[in-house]
Design a protein that fits this description.
Low-confidence stretches of chain B: 62-68
Strand order of the largest sheet of chain A: 1-4-3-2
CATH topology of chain A: Cytochrome-c3 Hydrogenase, chain B
Strand order of the largest sheet of chain B: 1-2-5-4-3
Number of domains of chain A: 1
Structural class of chain A: alpha+beta
Mean pLDDT of chain A: 88
Strand content of chain B: 15-25%
CATH superfamily of chain A: Cytochrome-c3 Hydrogenase, chain B
Shape of chain B: globular
Shape of chain A: globular
Largest sheet of chain B: 5 strands, mixed
Radius of gyration of chain B: 19 Å
Number of helices of chain B: 2
Strand content of chain A: 5-15%
Distance between the termini of chain B: 63 Å
Largest sheet of chain A: 4 strands, antiparallel
Radius of gyration of chain A: 22 Å
Structural class of chain B: alpha/beta
Oligomer: heterodimer
Distance between the termini of chain A: 33 Å
Order of helices and strands of chain A: EHEEEHHHHHHEEHHHHHHHEEEHHHH
Largest interface: A-B, 56 and 54 residues
Number of helices of chain A: 18
CATH class of chain A: Mainly Alpha
CATH architecture of chain A: Orthogonal Bundle
Helix content of chain A: 40-55%
Low-confidence stretches of chain A: none
Chain lengths: 419, 183
């Protein structure tokens, strides 16, 4: 990891003290009485969900900031404790409504690790393919909405053109456009449908020129550059101290991607680069996500080339539903089917923490099982949750107009922040 | 790699390729600082608090299809029975600190601290600033008092909320339904 040689973004640390997530107004400044406190959100079109920022302004300058979250807290973790393992797989996808397949994956991987269940290669490669498509999907929505907030409305139409095609692909493969619930403990819920490969290749062909088009719209746009360059600075050391991961960390010059440093699925068998930028500003985070979309397209193409034949789900009757047609002829299969659907399978006692690289960074899932049919405890480490902790640090000396660009560049999805 | 020198180390466990260090809560900060400086665990991934109230134990529950000694209780989780009884837990709550070292090989480690209800745990903000919200979440959701936290307030729930929703004894559907016919 090339951590040694990286240009200095700023001297020392900018993490506020003693509360790392809160920018406090100077007492002297407050006594002067010119500070205006503004509630930004919770219902504001540019907060990517329901986020409330309490901002102290000195003129146009942000001198104090605190992020308040919890407006979309829905108790996913509590709900999952009440469901059987089988039914609980439905929930992670809804936590992050832009990167649903990555969320599903991390929970399914945790179950499989506790069960010590092997998945067939076809499932592994298809999971990887879908997770990469999902990364593109998430970045597209990020790019479209972030540009929209800074006034570049046309980018939105272009990105949603590709997003639409992506949703069609998800629908083709899984039956749903969002929240696919296609990953099953042991593999995939269904075989990959005929025609998926051709459609997916068609999409890959349009994706690369698509990214070029977005860049053409933004890279030479003076307003876009003015409003993103040198803003929201975060140094590498501060990023690590604040638990940043994914594009935010890589945008600060740290070459760190779990797909490379701790390969899961079959990421060690595909060829891709991890883009790293050293500016630590909004612009670099944007450039990085553009590069990531290109890299993801590369991975998708390799997945299509290497897609193995064979079963799509493990042959383990204790965990995996028997094939539908067997239910008409086999009593045994009918019993297994009934048992799995009504009472669920039991997962051996244990605790586990699994992490994957979601579009937003390290997405972790801590699961405790008591050996019964329901999870004892599920806890998600949401990358967006950690990213929001960095708002106060990034917002040092920012102007109120830049606030939107900076919060947007951290790419948080409030669903996963509040869970 | 051995962790024998970790201050306050109670027990080391290995399972599923993961290492868990059980640490004395009084020496948690010392242990974390040591792990960060000596072993390079510079990245705190997550803090997960867990409530083990009602964790199946041999005195109250038996293995098999029926979950409890007195019969099947459909109101407790895992009432459909366990294949075998799990190991007992020393105290009611566990705080799990998932550490990561940002370097080649991505080593991970879990630091675990056991607490009774109301027992506090020192803050690790001084070691990893990112702990701020994770600790507030543990307080908000599980009611674990964090000693020395500069801003220990509710994070996800309202400021005037009563109770800690992720505790096992927190009622499901405990919130009164608005606009019901009784109103």
């Amino acid at each position: 990891m090339a951590i040694a040689e990286r240009p200095l973004i700023y001297e020392g640390t900018r993490v506020p003290h003693p509360i790392p997530t809160m920018l406090r107004v100077d007492d002297e400044l407050r006594e002067m009485g010119d500070i205006l406190q503004v509630n930004f959100g919770p219902n504001h079109p540019s907060t990517h969900g329901v986020l409330r920022l309490v901002v102290d302004l000195d003129g146009e300058k942000v001198v104090g900031l605190e992020a308040k979250i919890g407006y979309v807290h829905t108790g996913f973790e509590k709900t999952m404790e009440q469901k059987t393992w089988w039914k609980a797989i439905t929930y992670p996808a809804r936590i992050d409504y832009l990167a649903y397949q990555n969320n599903e994956l991390v929970f399914v991987l945790a179950i499989e690790k506790l069960l010590q269940l092997e998945t067939p290669p076809k499932a592994t490669w298809m999971r990887m393919l879908l997770c990469e498509l999902n990364r593109i999907h998430s970045h597209l929505v990020w790019l479209g909405t972030s540009a929209l907030e800074l006034g570049a409305i046309s980018v939105f139409w272009y990105t949603f053109r590709e997003r639409e095609a992506l949703c069609d692909l998800f629908e083709l493969a899984t039956g749903y456009r969002l929240h696919t619930r296609y990953f099953q403990a042991g593999g995939l819920a269904e075989d990959i449908p005929k025609g998926f490969e051709a459609e997916c290749r068609k999409f890959c062909k349009t994706m690369s020129p698509g990214v070029d088009q977005y860049e053409a719209l933004l890279d030479k746009n003076a307003i876009w550059i003015e409003r993103t360059r040198g803003l929201g600075l975060l140094s590498a050391d501060d990023a690590i101290a604040l638990g940043q991961s994914g594009p935010v960390l890589r945008g600060s010059g740290v070459d760190w991607d779990l797909r490379k440093s701790q390969p899961y699925l079959a990421y060690d068998q595909v060829d891709f680069d991890v883009p790293v930028y050293h500016g630590g500003d909004v612009y670099d985070r944007y450039k990085l996500r553009m590069d990531e979309m290109r890299e993801s397209t590369r991975i998708v193409e390799q997945c299509l080339d290497a897609m193995p034949e064979g079963p799509w789900i493990a042959d383990d009757r204790k965990v995996v539903l028997p094939p539908r047609e067997e239910l008409h002829t086999s009593m045994e299969s009918l019993i297994y089917h009934f048992k799995i659907v009504t009472e669920g399978y039991r997962v051996p006692e244990g605790e586990i923490y699994v992490a994957v690289e979601s579009p937003r960074g390290e997405l972790g899932c801590y699961v405790v099982s008591d050996g019964g049919p329901r999870p004892w405890r599920v806890k998600f480490r949401a990358p967006g949750f950690a990213a929001l902790e960095a708002t106060a640090t990034c917002m040092r000396d920012a102007l109120v107009a830049d606030l939107i660009a900076i919060v947007g560049s951290l790419d948080t999805v409030m669903g996963e922040v509040d869970r | 790699m051995t962790y024998e020198g970790v201050p306050g180390l109670v027990e080391t466990r290995e399972a599923h390729g993961e290492t868990t260090l059980v640490v004395d809560p009084a020496r948690l900060v010392e242990a974390c600082t040591y792990l960060r400086d000596e072993h390079g665990f510079n990245f705190l991934s997550d803090i997960a608090a867990t409530d083990y109230l009602g964790w199946p134990e041999s005195t109250s529950q038996v293995a098999g299809y029926v979950g409890t000694a007195s019969g099947r209780n459909i109101n407790v989780p895992a009432s459909q029975g366990l294949q075998r009884l799990p190991e007992g837990r020393p105290k009611r709550f566990a705080m799990n600190y998932q550490l990561l070292a940002v370097r080649e090989g991505a080593p991970r480690l879990r630091v675990q601290v056991w607490l009774e209800d109301g027992e506090s745990v020192p803050t690790v903000i001084g070691v990893w600033p990112t702990a701020d919200w994770f600790e507030r979440e543990a307080w908000d959701m599980m009611g674990i008092p964090i000693e020395g936290h500069p801003n220990l307030s509710r994070l996800l729930m309202d400021e005037d909320w009563e109770g800690h929703p992720l505790r096992k004894d927190y009622p499901l559907g405990g919130e009164p339904v608005r606009f019901s016919s009784e109103e």
